[in-house]
Every structure is written in C-alpha cells, then in structure tokens.
Design brief:
- A hairpin with a 5-residue loop joins strand 4 (about 60-75) and strand 5.
- The protein is built from 1 helix and 6 strands.
- The protein has one helix at about 20-25; strands at about 5-15, 15-20, 40-55, 60-75, 80-95, 105-115.
- Strands 1, 2, 3, 4, 5 and 6 form a 6-stranded antiparallel β-sheet that branches.
- By secondary structure, the protein is mostly beta strands.
Length: about 120
C-alpha cells in the first residue's frame, strides 16, 4: 500500500566467476559476435539493500555494491589490440536517508593495451 513502509533486508553474492560471464551482461547491440570475444580473468559481485522504504518521509534502504575484477583480459579478433591486466575494485554505498552521503570508491584500476603484431 502506498502509505505503508516496506522493510527491506536483501543480501546477494556471486561466487568467484569468469570475467567473460560479466561481459555477457552487456546488451548484444554493443557486443556483436560475443562468441568471438576472448575474455579471461575472474570477477565477484556482492551487495545488499537494508532498511525501510518510506513514501511518507522519502527514505530508501541503504544500498551497498561491491565489484572486483582480477587479471582480466579482453581480446576481439577484429581489433588490433587487446586490453589486459584489468584489476578493479569498486565499492558503492547509497545512504537511503541522506543521498549526500553516497560514496563511490574505485581502486587498483590498471588497463594495459598491448599491440598485436602481424608477422
């Protein structure tokens, strides 16, 4: 009901999985021929939404998201270069009562492009 508060307590976590699985979430319109894409490395994703959604006082649950990518590599046959050494740790926190306290932290972002040489 619109006048009722909704209490939320949701937690999720993925086990360590392949980086290519993460890239499969990108809409097909942006990645043609996904099967030709080479991607290696690992990623994990976790998060939570805890608190009260209240229309009366415009509050939302607090939201936390954590993403990490380790030793990622992306290579596509039609492109002359690949992106390797993708290491990323990102944390997002949204304070449901005060949006000004929202934080985004991105660490260890290293993307290295290597030329593919034709001999």
């Amino acid at each position: 009901m619109p006048e009722d508060d909704i209490t939320t307590d949701l937690t999720f976590k993925s086990d360590q999985t392949s980086f290519k699985t993460l890239l499969s979430l990108v809409p097909a319109i942006y990645i043609n021929d996904y099967h030709d894409l080479k991607a290696t490395g690992d990623f994990s994703l976790s998060g939570s939404a805890k608190g009260v959604y209240s229309d009366a006082d415009s509050t939302l649950p607090d939201i936390a998201l954590n993403l990490s990518v380790n030793n990622g590599l992306i290579s596509y046959p039609a492109l002359p270069e690949k992106i390797s050494n993708i290491n990323l740790k990102a944390d997002v926190y949204v304070d449901g009562k005060n949006m000004d306290k929202t934080t985004v932290s991105i660490e260890n972002s290293i993307w290295k492009r290597l030329a593919i040489l034709s001999i």
